[in-house]
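RECORD TYPE: inverse folding
INPUT: structure tokens
STRUCTURE:
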């Protein structure tokens, strides 16, 4: 099935969700989409599927090794990369805005 035909319902749902967001959240979503469409978009899209099992012990060991030479990154800093604050993050975990429809 062509890409456009399979993506139409998903695009419609995306528009519904965007319509239910506050201006600051919409700005954040736009930033995320622009990041997704950055210079490496095609390369990432064409990359082979990563099916390697995640090894928890190895992942923890790698993160501890990383922290030996780098400063930890706070949750606040990660949110700021997307133009969000902890207040925004907490609010997004609450009941959807009036008029938003749950997909299920």
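DESIGNED SEQUENCE:
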């Amino acid at each position: 099935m062509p890409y456009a035909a399979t993506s139409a319902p998903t695009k419609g749902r995306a528009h519904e969700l965007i319509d239910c967001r506050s201006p600051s959240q919409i700005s954040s979503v736009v930033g995320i989409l622009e990041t997704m469409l950055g210079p490496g978009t095609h390369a990432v899209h064409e990359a082979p599927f990563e099916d390697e099992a995640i090894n928890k012990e190895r992942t923890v060991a790698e993160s501890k090794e990383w922290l030996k030479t780098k400063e930890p990154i706070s949750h606040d800093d990660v949110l700021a990369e997307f133009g969000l604050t902890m207040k925004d993050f907490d609010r997004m975990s609450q009941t959807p805005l009036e008029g938003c429809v749950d997909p299920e």
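NOTES: Residues 3-92 form one domain.
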